[in-house]
Amino acid sequence: MLQLIFLMLSVLSLSFCGEIVATTYPVYYPLKYLVGEKHRLEVLVRSQADPHHYELTPKDAERLLGANLVMTLGLESWEWRLLKNLPKGKVVTLSEGINLLKRGSFPDPHVWLSPKEYRVVVRNIKDALVRWDPSQRAYYQERYSQYLQRLNSLDRKLESTLKTCSYRTLVSTHRAWDYLSRDYGIKTLSLSGVHAEEEPKPSEIKAIVQTVKREGLKYIFAEVGQDRKVADFIASQTGTRVLMLNSSLFPQLNSDDYFSIMERNLRALREGLGCR
Ligand SMILES: [Zn+2]
To answer: What is the per-residue pLDDT for 198?
Structure first.
């Protein structure tokens, strides 16, 4: 009997200070801030390469099964497969209420690159945490308010900077910036589709070279962690230089979080688009 009680207690205490897995960095950073020291937290996809084509490994499957809660944006096909394979109630999707852009019949997952739209994701994270662990409601609410304030101030900074740019077209190798484009009034022109390994057609490269020349752009953009061959080729054809953007939010420094990476992105955009 005692043994049984002990077992029950250990199970209870395990689930009480349980572990959460965030599938990607855009989920991980705000979740980490909201959770503080209350729960252990891990990120599933740690590779710097294109996070859109993640393949579940047996070790990762183990981590997911061992977690008490899994949070995922739910906008990629690999996330939909996860959802099907994990017990219901263990996985929370965070896409509810997002004003999604579509690529054909698929959603564009890069919502985090517009702080305006990302606010919906962060609110969903807070709501899910409160539902899962109501004993800490006040704490999560307080941390959420702080995070929201920082998001709002980043939003104002992006808005005031991007409206002053001499160049209004962001030419990038990865089609990640359409939310930023929609919400902050710049145009985007991208070489590849949402998936990094989609090779651009020669006709697409030619069209971009023409646009870059016509608009007299000084810089084009490539992605941290992704192949920049095509960007370098276009730069050589147009006399432009290549600046780096980080759209996956993969940490380049140990101390990186959402805000430090977005500040770096903003600095690159400011230089590349000639903003004040
Ligand atoms: Zn991407």
So the answer is: 64
How far does residue 177's CA lie from ligand 1's centre (Å)? Answer: 9
Gap from CA of 44 to ligand 1 centroid (Å): 16
The tokens 């729960």 sit on which residue? Answer: 39
Q: Which fold has domain 9-158?
A: Rossmann fold (3.40.50)
Question: Do 230 and 205 meet the contact criterion of CB atoms below 8 Å apart?
Answer: yes
What is the distance in A from the centroid of ligand 1 to the CA of 110? 6
| Domain boundaries, given as residue ranges, for the chain | 9-158, 163-273
The CATH code for residues 163-273 is 3.40.50.1980
Q: Across residues 159-171, what is the average pLDDT? A: 97
Does residue 257 surpass a pLDDT of 90?
Answer: yes
C-alpha of 146 from chain center: 20
168 strand-pairing partners: none
Q: Average pLDDT for residues 160-181, to the nearest whole number?
A: 96
Residue 272 C-alpha from the chain's centroid: 22
With cut-offs at 50, 70 and 90, classify the pLDDT of residue 192: low
pLDDT band at 10 (very low <50, low <70, confident <90, very high): very low
Using the mean position of ligand 1's atoms as its centre, give its distance from the Cα of residue 194 in Å: 6
CA of 132 to the centre of ligand 1 (A): 29
C-alpha of residue 22 to centroid of ligand 1, in Å: 17
- Predicted confidence at residue 85, as pLDDT, reads 86
Does residue 206 contact residue 29 with C-beta atoms inside 8 Å?
no
9-158 against 163-273: fold identical: yes
Q: What is the pTM of this model?
A: 0.91
